[in-house]
Structure formats: C-alpha cells, structure tokens
From TrEMBL:
Identification of the protein by name: Phosphate-binding protein
CDD domains hit by this protein: PBP2_PstS
Domain of life assignment: Bacteria
Organism for this UniProt entry: Amazonocrinis nigriterrae CENA67
Keywords recorded for this protein, A-Z: Phosphate transport, Signal, Transport
Signal peptide start-end: 1-25
Any single GO CC term annotated in Swiss-Prot or TrEMBL for this entry: ATP-binding cassette (ABC) transporter complex
Family stated for the protein in its record: Belongs to the PstS family.
An example molecular function term from Gene Ontology annotations: phosphate ion binding
Gene Ontology biological process terms, A to Z: phosphate ion transmembrane transport
SUPFAM superfamilies to which the protein is assigned, alphabetical: Periplasmic binding protein-like II
Residues covered by the PBP domain: 37-318
Organism lineage: Bacteria, Bacillati, Cyanobacteriota, Cyanophyceae, Nostocales
Transmembrane residue ranges: none
C-alpha cells in the first residue's frame, strides 16, 4: 500500500472511526484483518462483570474492541432508542412503549443476575438483621435513628449507636432503583401508595448519588448511612450487609447461594425473556434478586458489527459465565443459556 493511498484511506476512515468502526487495516503480512469496535452503555449493576468480559474477550480477540459505559439503565436505553450505541444494558430490560420507538427492533437478552443489597456504615460485631417493616420504614423516613426499638428487637445483644440514619439513594434513572422499589411496593401497601415503583421515584428522605459507584462511595463516607447497591459493589468495598427478612420470615444474608434459590422460581417467557420476581417464595431465598439484560437491535446495517456482537454474546454465555460467580454474580442456568442463545441468533444484518 503506497503512502499516498494509505493517506487517502485514513482520511476516508475518519468519520467511521467517530462511529467506532475501523475496517480492513493492512497487516505486516499484507493480509486484510477486519477490526470492529462496539459501543455500549447502560446499567451500572453489571458493569464490573462487563468490564471483565470486555478485557478477557479482547485478549482473545484483539481485532474486536468493546467499550461499555456505566451510565445507568435509563440513560443507556435512551441512547439505544436514539441509535447512538450498538447495544445497551438495563436491569429492567425494556418496556413495550420504548421498544415501539425502535424501527430496527430490539432483542432483550438476560445475560447475568445478582442481588441488590442494603449496605450500611456502622461498626458492629455482626451483620444487622432488618425486618421487612423496618427497612420499609427507614426508606419512608419513619425510623430515623439506629437505636430505634424495632431495630433493637430484631438484633438482641447488639449495642446499637445513637446515630441518625442517612438514607442514600440513586439520583439517575436506575434499574437498580426500579427492582428495589418494585420489591418495596410488593410488600408494603403504604410504600406503593406513597412512593411507588420506577427507575426514578420521589424519595421521602435521604441524599442522592449517581450510579452504584456513587451510592457505595457515599455510604463509605457517612457514618450511619444506609443505601442499596448491587452485591459486587458492596463486597468489593467491604460494606457491612444487612440480612433481610424474606417472605417466609427468615433473615437471609445476600450470597450467591441465597440469590440462586430466588432465581429458581423465575420462569422466563419464551417470547421476550423478561421476567421479575418481586417477593420470592422459599425459606432460604434472598428477597431482592434480578436478571440484568443486554439489549441489541434486531437489524444491523453493518454485517461486521452484527456478527461481532453475536460472537461476543455467545462467548459471554459460555466462557464468560465462568467469571460470574468469581465476581459475585450468578451464572445462568443451562436452560436459560439455551434460551438466550436462541434469541441472540435472531440478530440480523
């Protein structure tokens, strides 16, 4: 390739690079290698796992570059609807109304699962037990101090500090918020009528932070703080976690094992692979667990991108699942993997 031709080629590729795609670079052995770059954005819930996957996949496939931005489910879905990303991620998948705005069609793929935990900043010798009514009343602003009698009753022998409770919640549109508030609405008529469920709600009390990252940081910085984050963020940052009372009346710590018990009751419908469980049955089920979804278009104008994304998804469903448990997420069952692979095969160019 002459210097003049190379210069013209590079000039021609500049707008494509801006769209995160560079194709057909000349290699040392003069063979053409196709390079493709995929851009995704959305939920912070699965971001640590996505970042691990992206790194591992790129090491095995250096011609594929994947950039994932943790900006929250709402923002990710907005970019997806606007067509400014190649894929998105959301902890609440996508609504029918949102999907109707996408001419190219949308496929929602559950790609991993995990727990939403209540982490707090207290120096105690053991993990707090929080009854259902207690954590509802904390989020409603009705229980405002850690030495409240109802908290003490559930934690006999634990010396609770006379500290004010500082609730930390999300400020961005968040699938994590949606999953938590769906749970709170399912177990509390008062919460349902006063606050309700959604990716953004009017919190009765507390201070806000952006992303799981921001909520985790605020909890760490404020003595007496409590907030909701994805399990991996809490464990990575060594936040104390509350054992929550489940539907059976048992106090359950969030662990991969207790979350797996919850998922056993979730049946994914064949048509869209979207399902939630707001108040799981089971003596050992942790009460707040969710799948998180990777959103792709049904139709891609660029066949290179379509195939690259399909290859990555297939890898994530097989090799990538091995990293899930290591990081604190839940590997998909074999049955779910087959369902997701079948859906991903419908991605077309």
């Amino acid at each position: 390739m002459s210097a003049q031709l190379r210069s013209k080629r590079q000039t021609y590729l500049l707008p494509l690079v801006a769209l995160s795609l560079s194709v057909a670079a000349c290699t040392a052995d003069n063979r053409n290698t196709i390079h493709v770059s995929l851009v995704g954005a959305g939920a912070s819930f699965p971001a640590p796992l996505y970042q691990r996957w992206v790194l591992d996949y790129n090491q095995q496939n250096p011609n594929v570059e994947i950039n994932y931005q943790s900006i929250g489910s709402s923002a990710g879905v907005k970019h997806f609807i606007n067509g400014t990303v190649d894929f998105a991620a959301s902890d609440v998948a996508i609504t029918k109304e949102q999907a109707a705005q996408i001419n190219r069609g949308v496929i929602a793929l559950p790609i991993t699962a995990g727990s939403i935990v209540l982490g707090y900043n207290l120096n105690l010798p053991t993990n707090l037990k929080l009854p259902r009514q207690v954590y509802i009343d904390i989020f409603l602003g009705k229980i405002t101090n850690w030495n409240h009698s109802q908290i003490a009753l559930a934690n006999p022998g634990v010396k609770l500090p006379a500290l004010p409770i500082v609730v930390v919640h999300r400020t961005d549109g968040s699938g994590t918020t949606s999953v938590l508030t769906q749970h709170l609405s399912a177990i509390s008529p008062e919460w349902k009528s006063k606050v309700g469920a959604g990716k953004a709600v009017a919190w009765p009390v507390g201070i806000g932070a952006k992303g799981n990252e921001g909520v985790t940081a605020q909890i760490q910085q404020i003595p007496g703080a409590i907030g909701y984050v994805e399990y991996v963020y809490a464990t990575r940052n060594q936040l104390p976690l509350a054992a929550l009372e489940n539907k059976s009346g048992n106090y359950i710590m969030p662990t991969p094992e207790s979350a797996a018990k919850t998922l056993e009751a979730v049946k994914l419908p064949a048509d869209n692979l979207i399902a939630f469980i707001t108040d799981p049955m089971g003596n050992q089920s942790y009460p707040i667990v969710t799948y998180t979804w990777l959103l792709t278009y049904h139709q891609y104008q660029d066949p290179v991108k379509a195939q690259a994304l399909k290859n990555f998804i297939d890898w994530a469903l097989t090799e990538g699942q091995k990293s899930s448990l290591e990081l604190g997420y839940l590997p998909l069952s074999k049955k779910v993997v087959v369902q997701v692979q079948s859906a991903a095969n419908k991605i077309a160019e």
